[in-house]
Amino acid sequence: MARQTFDFKVITPSGTVLSRKPEIVVLPGAEGDFALMHGHVPMIAKLKSGKALILHDRQKESIVIASGFVMMRQDQAIVFTREMNL
Known about the structure:
With 86 residues, this protein is mostly beta strands.
């Protein structure tokens, strides 16, 4: 069975700093960590500063983001933040 992915981007004031096709992304929400995946309901959520986990191509990737928000719609998630570090 093929893995289902979605488009995931991190955008800062300097532009798009990360673009992936993950199976799952775990983000540091203002109310607690939560996961996004293919087929997730549309949403906008506030993010706190912290570590995000990206699972893609059977590998784990960690990034650190500043506070911001995420918008999920039509199998695309976009994080808007002022800063991101690998």
